[in-house]
Structure formats: C-alpha cells, structure tokens
Amino acid sequence: MKKFLDLISEEMKKAFEAAGYDGALGKATLSNRPDLCEYQCNGAMAGAKIYKKAPVIIANEVAGKCADSKIFSSVEAVAPGFLNLKVREDFVRDYLARMRGEDKFGLEMPEKPCKIVIDYGGPNVAKPLHVGHLRSAIIGESVKRIARYAGHDVTGDIHMGEWGLQMGLIMTELRERQPDLAYFDENFEGEYPKEPPFTLAELEEIYPTASKKSKEDAAYKERALEATFKLQSGVRGYHALWEHIMALSIPDLKRNYKELNVDFDLWNGEAAVKDIIPGMVEDMKKKGYAYISEGALVVDVKEETDAREIPPCMILKSDGAALYNTTDLATIIDRVKTFHPDRIIYLADKRQNLYFEQVFRCARKTGLVEPETELLHIGFGTMNGKDGKPFKTREGGVMRLENLIREINEEMYRKIAENRQVDEEQAGETARVVALSAIKYGDLSNQASKDYIFDIDKFTSFEGDTGPYILYTIVRIKSILNKIEEQGGEISGATLQKVRSEAEKALMLEVTGFNAMMETAYAESAPHKVCAYIYNLANAFNHFYHETKIVTEEDEEKKAGWVALLVLTRDILETCIDVLGFSAPERM
Ligand code: ARG
Description:
CATH topology of the largest domain: Isoleucyl-tRNA Synthetase, Domain 1
Bound molecules: arginine
C-alpha cells in the first residue's frame, strides 16, 4: 500500500504539472507548523529560481489547480510562497480503513527478501552478564524483529565469547587450586568425570580472581596464555573442562536472556568455527595476504584514502593462538557457507568501530565475502549512570544484569502496588512486564550510537517518553474497549465513521505514518524511530481520549467509528512494542 505522504506528493505533483511546472517540485512533507496545516510543500520556493517567477505566484497557480482535489480539503498559498495543506477527512478515513484491511497495515513487502544474519548479545561465557551486554541484546533483538516484520529472512546468532584468554585464565586458576585433577594430567587416558569440578557460583568467582592475578603476575599470565593455546589446539583435558564450563554457563545465559525476552536462533560461539581456522590461515598465507610481522601473522588493511592510521588485522598471535579477529573472520566464512547472507549485522560497543573496520576490510580483501555482501557494524554508545559516567553499582563495581533487572522490577512493583489496580500476585507479574518496557524503551528510544543515562526514576515513570507510558496507553485503550464490549458493543466488526473532531483527525493522521516509519526503521536499523512514532501516537490518542466521552456516547454510529479507530491504534501500538521486544499487560 502506498505511503500516505507519497499519495499527497503525487497529488501535488499533478497540480504542479497542471499549472505548467515540473512535477518533481510537488514533494510534500509533514508540516513544521502544525498550528497552520497538516502537510506542506515548498516546491514553489524551489520553482521560483528555475522559472524566475515570484514563488507566491507559482504557489497561487498550483493552489488553484487543487480546487476539486479528492485529497485536499484546503491548499493555501502563503507568503513568501509556501503551500499549506490539509487533507480531506474521507481521504484519511479511507486510508485507515484500507490499513485495517491489509496485512501488516499495508506495509509493502520486499519483492525478494534479504537474507540477514544478526550477530548480537555476544556474552562472554563464564563471566556473568553485566550491563555492558544489555544494549547489544536489546538493540539487536529489536533490529532483528524489525527486519523480520519488514519481510526479510533473518537469523539471530548470539556469538558467545568462549575461545579466548578468559578460558585460559579460568583453567589456570583451577589448576592452581586443584592441581591433581585428571584434566591436567597429560598421561590420563580414562574418561573424565561427568560432573564438573566447580559450580557456576565458583566459576563466576574464579574468573575475576584469575583476571586480577594475571594483571599483577606476569608468570601467571604466561600460564594462562599457554592454557588458552592448549585449549585451542585440542588438548583433551582442557577441552573437557571447556565442555563443563559451557554446560554450566549456557543454561544460565538462557535464563537471563529469557528474562529479557531476547531469543536467539543460533547459540554459536567463537569455538563453533575452530575447525575452519587452520584452513583459513593457510589460505591467507598461500594467497600472500597474511605475513609475519613482529612474530604475529597479520593482513594489511590500510587504504590510500585513509585519513587515519588503520593498523593491520592480526590473524594469529606470536604464540600461534587465535584471537577475537580470527574467530570473527572464520565465522564470516561459516555464515557465508551456511546462509549466503546479503547482509551481516554486528551489534557491539562503538569502541569496537576500528576493530570491525579491520575485520571487514580483511574479509573483503581476502575474498571471504562477495563484494555485494554488506557487512554492517551497529556501534552503540555507553549506558551511563546519573553522574554521566559508565553505569556502576553503588559500591562502584560492575553491575550484574540480574541485579539491575531486579532493582527495576522492585521499583515497578512498588509503583504498581501503590496503584492497587491489581491484586498482590498479579502485581508481581505485571511489574515484570512493565519493568521490561522501562528498561528496553529507555534504551531503544535513544539513537543507538549515542551514550545515554540510565535513570530508573525516569524510565519507570508512567508519564513522558517512557515504556510504562506507552503500556499505560495501550491498557487504557483495552479497558475502554472492554467496557464497550460489556455494554454489548461490537468491537472487531466496527467500521470507521465520519471524522468529528480535530483531535480525532490528528490521531488518524498519526496512524497513517505507520508504513513509512517501519520502512525507515528497517532501512536505518533504527528502533528509536519506532519509539518516536509510538510516543507521538500515544500522545495523539491521549489527547483524543481527554476530549472525547467514548464509553458514554449515545450516538451509536459515532461510537462505532471511535471503536474502529481505537482497535486500529491498539493493534499498531502492540505491533510496535512487539518489534521493540516487549509486551503490554491486560491491566496495570
Ligand atoms: N564478546 C564480545 C564482547 O563482549 C562481543 C562480541 C561481538 N560480536 C562479534 N562478532 N565480535 O565484547
């Protein structure tokens, strides 16, 4: 279904042509003076230069051609030559009626869906999830859902970090504590125990301890590097330990992501491509791309046009160990082979910009991807505390994700229990649903690349540009519809009627923007556009609601028209929060 604004532009184009001017001048936009008009066209201003005529003369001529337009109720030429547009209420109404009838409210599906792989989440196994992983998960999940809604074939991959130094550190510390374990005995040929030699809680303590020691003790770090290499080269005992770590960590990760309503199609990690690495390295050497520099194996990726220094991409460390880059490159090979993606999107901190630039260039240079395959890094900013510094616990440590979620759940519970709309048991569940909207909307409503301040008070507020406000609006619509249904009114069969008020029309005009918004949100991988749209839509609805006595309206026709508008508004709001990755309760 054509976009609303495009229909308006087409109508203006006809008017420009009828008046003898270039139709391209007819491009319309949303009004930046909503007090004066709904849409505007500045084509006469641009036309003035081409046709060497006063813009207001052109504008007047064009306005004259719109007299019996089926789209415009008024076209006004105003000094110095703007065209102020208002649309007919039956035109808006027909458009909304068509939206209701069409799949996905008339969003056009691509002729050929793109194959997309989204790499997001990126937790490091054996380290508890912390707030730094929140953004990757939240934004990635939404980017994935938007692309899917827009009709594309999307696979989400968690890409766990489980093949690097953190594993070597854990093994080194374990060996320090339990040197007699069979895993460390190179002559051991029997079967290793099924039970791991540590619990998850121990594991989470072992890693930071080891990491701290390695920073203070060079010999310890050396042992950790060696252990990493042993793991990567397939030493049996190390691999068995690795399996234990994975078996303990993955269920915990799954629980955490489920809590966030984040869901991966693939639970691959760096290690999934370990068997691809040797062949890839050989090939890069054979083709002359990779060479030894200061002991390490590297590929040059700088280009003549670079304004800044782009260092070579390191493929193997001097001890022969694979790095973060190595597994990322091998993963590209794997994804190309499995999915033939048109596009691979990576969600990672923007501080990794240079890193991804190196990896992408290396992948292109060494022919791992076709030239037309798009590699895109969405680099997100930092989640800061109220002090403007990276978010920390009160004690100044790294905040565990679980604790952060718990804090918000508690705050939300307090607010919801205060409201007393729901009973005790329901309040807990509702609080969780609303808290998730607070966290996710708080994040997603900012452009991803920007830093933002994580402000619990603001995010959990029922007023303003927040998740709870959006949910509150949805719940309000649902409750009105329930009341009307209880009165015996028809809900899903109700049809739009003549538009009666400014507030009603304003709400309808907000609704019309859905397909254009979703197209842009997909094209720009920009969940914040969805947030901005639903915030405006919720405001328009609440304005209409405050001006209109819907439930007690006696004119049945009028009421039915409003019901139809409410149903559409509710469905669109719910669709939008679904692509943002959260949902609304029935009551709150
Ligand atoms: N594990 C990484 C980190 O914690 C993020 C992974 C991002 N994805 C990727 N393919 N490199 O920083």
